[in-house]
């Protein structure tokens, strides 16, 4: 239960930061903010200050900003409709910018204290040291597996197998395959508590459940000096931002395969690297045993994902609203408030359907 609460609170914090960006940009652009809400209605508490209703609402799933005239044809002074196109652009993109700034700050904190390895996303051209040399950490243990029966737990390190050093998941996968059906000696380390010897009988050759029953992950941490860390944080945020955009496009293009895949037991490539709310919960539960640096890394990843998803020109998202605004500006054709609401309504339903599909595949991947 505590993990569920933590995920909700952390995700809500990122959404509130996103909405705070809209709030500040609107105030600076002369657009009247009618309400800044934490959570979603029904309202539990509210107070008006300087013309703005600040509210706390029952559903703890982020927050929202309500602007004067944002959903209608109101063009009176102080309304969103009366604002210039550039002002609207800044308001709609402010949430994305705030999420990216949040990610840079989080990645900077990791860069100066020890950033978990990110593979191809790492700024290899920047000088760094290892705050933790590469080791093989157990990210997950399958229920009733040989590893579980031997007492191996999440967050422990597999130092060696039959006196052969294990540094990557490929090392472990090759070893367990070559020794399937045999009893092997593993040296297990738990941070700060020394090592212990564990004898494990691996599953028989040909097993489809994994011979040992663990998900291994190479664990190392890179450290940068305070100045270089700025460049590292910006680089990682940018690289992850563009990688996420590419991933979302692949997901959208792969929707037909996602639907077809519902009638099989496999996970289509389009869903293999995606994760919905259920997947994020499972990932958070798995990495929470690895320490605060991994939790911070996940939080930074989610911040970047929120920014990347919202900047895309998809109906119901900030990018979709911005695309319609600029389309009207460039073509000179006005879209009625009702038509725009219908476009965003349809887009919202499509996004909910996509989330439902991803949730189905989260079940297949993690359970």
Secondary structure: elements and pairs:
Elements: H1 2-28, E1 33-49, E2 52-67, H2 85-113, E3 115-116, E4 129-141, H3 146-149, E5 157-161, E6 164-165, H4 169-178, E7 183-189, E8 195-201, E9 214-223, H5 226-253, H6 255-261, H7 269-272, H8 277-287, H9 292-311, H10 318-331, H11 337-366
Antiparallel strand pairs: 1-2, 3-9, 4-9, 5-6, 5-7, 7-8
Descriptive report:
The chain is of the alpha+beta class and 367 residues long. It is built from 11 helices and 9 strands. It has a 4-stranded antiparallel sheet with strand order 6-5-7-8. A 3-stranded antiparallel sheet has the order 3-9-4. α2 (85-113) crosses α5 and α8 crosses α11 (337-366). 31% of the residues are buried. The model has no long low-confidence stretch (mean pLDDT 91).
Q: What gyration radius follows from the Cα positions, in whole Å?
A: 24 Å
Shape estimate: elongated
Instruction: Report the portion of residues in β strands.
Output: 15-25%
Distinct helical segment count: 11
The average pLDDT score comes to 91
Main β sheet profile:
4 strands, antiparallel
| Low-pLDDT stretches | none
Jot down its keywords.
alpha+beta; 3 domains; Pdz3 Domain; 11 helices; 367 residues; 9 strands
């Amino acid at each position: 239960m505590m993990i569920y609460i933590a995920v909700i609170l952390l995700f809500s914090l990122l959404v509130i930061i996103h909405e705070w960006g809209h709030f500040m940009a609107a105030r600076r652009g002369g657009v009247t903010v009618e309400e800044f809400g934490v959570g979603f209605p029904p309202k539990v508490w509210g107070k008006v200050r300087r013309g703005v209703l600040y509210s706390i609402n029952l559903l703890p799933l982020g927050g929202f900003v309500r602007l004067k005239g944002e959903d209608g044809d109101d063009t009176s002074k102080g309304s969103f409709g009366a604002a210039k196109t550039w002002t609207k652009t800044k308001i709609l993109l402010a949430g994305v910018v705030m999420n990216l700034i949040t990610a840079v700050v989080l990645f900077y904190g990791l860069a100066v204290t020890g950033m978990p390895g990110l593979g191809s996303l790492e700024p290899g051209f920047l000088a760094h040291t290892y705050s933790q040399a590469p080791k093989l950490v157990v990210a997950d243990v399958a229920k009733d597996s040989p590893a579980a029966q031997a007492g191996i737990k999440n967050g422990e390190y597999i130092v060696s197998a039959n006196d052969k050093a294990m540094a990557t998941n490929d090392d472990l996968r090759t070893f367990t395959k070559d020794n399937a059906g045999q009893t092997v000696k593993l040296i297990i380390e738990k941070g700060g508590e020394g090592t212990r010897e564990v004898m494990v009988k691996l599953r028989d050759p040909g097993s489809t459940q994994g011979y040992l029953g663990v998900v291994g992950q190479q664990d190392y941490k890179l450290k940068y000096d305070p100045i270089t860390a700025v460049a590292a944080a910006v680089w990682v945020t940018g690289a992850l931002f563009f990688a996420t955009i590419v991933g979302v496009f692949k997901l959208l293009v792969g929707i037909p395969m996602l639907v077809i895949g519902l009638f099989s037991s496999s996970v289509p490539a389009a869903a293999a690297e995606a994760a919905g709310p259920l997947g994020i919960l499972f990932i958070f539960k798995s990495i929470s045993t690895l320490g605060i640096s991994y939790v911070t890394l996940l939080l930074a990843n989610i911040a970047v994902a929120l920014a990347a998803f919202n900047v895309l020109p998809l109906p119901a998202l900030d990018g979709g609203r911005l695309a319609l605004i600029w389309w009207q500006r460039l073509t000179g054709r006005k879209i009625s408030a009702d038509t725009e609401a219908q476009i965003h309504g349809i887009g919202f339903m499509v996004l909910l359907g996509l989330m439902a599909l991803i949730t189905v595949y989260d079940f297949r991947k993690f359970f």
